[in-house]
Design goal:
Strand order of the largest sheet: 3-2-1-4-5
Oligomer: single chain
Largest sheet: 5 strands, antiparallel
Number of domains: 2
Structural class: alpha+beta
Number of strands: 7
Bound molecules: zinc ion
Length: about 170
């Protein structure tokens, strides 16, 4: 069994590297930036800069200094109020320095190069919903999101939809 480094444990309430499809960037729109208390893995609270996104289902991103400096450059302003409405392209960097070690981190690209429709994000896990084949039928990401929107009132990925179904079936048994 591979062991789990504590730094790899993620806070599911916030945007993280697990939100990406392997090797894929994601473009999201900043709704607003706040300073708010964030609990770390030891339950300690710390004031952090947090970016909230306009796209439904997108988890807020805890903004570190590197990303804040990139945003200042991208937006041409050091004031967080001026960052609202900006589209940013995010990627998972597997080589972020954390003291002497390298860990995964979310980074902002210097410019937006991706075009096309915005990703549809899963409300439960925050990942971009991807298409797939179910019961021998191919579904697009939009179709999967739509089906779950009807069923659960929120867009969900296939995995989280299956989880909710399992929970609902379990509740029905009880
Ligand atoms: Zn999900």
């Amino acid at each position: 069994m591979p062991k789990t480094h504590w730094k790899k444990l993620h806070n599911p309430n916030y945007f993280g590297c697990w939100c990406f499809e392997e090797g894929m960037d994601m473009v999201l729109t900043i709704r607003h930036v706040t300073q708010e208390p964030v609990k770390d893995e030891n339950g300690r609270q710390e004031q952090c800069m947090v970016i909230h996104f306009a796209e439904p289902g997108a988890k807020p991103l805890i903004c570190n200094k590197t990303n804040a400096k990139m945003l200042e450059k991208l937006c041409g302003s050091a004031y967080i109020e001026d960052w609202a409405g900006t589209k940013i392209q995010l990627y998972a960097d597997h080589n972020v320095r954390f003291g002497k070690e390298r860990v995964d981190g979310v980074r902002i690209r210097p410019r937006v190069t991706l075009s096309g429709p915005a990703p549809i994000l899963c409300t439960d896990c925050g990942k971009a919903i991807s298409g797939g084949e179910f019961g021998g039928k191919a579904y697009t990401a939009a179709q999967i999101a739509g089906i779950n929107q009807k069923r659960y009132g929120v867009p969900l990925c296939a995995e989280c939809s299956a989880k909710r179904k399992e929970e609902a079936d379990h509740d029905a048994d009880a």
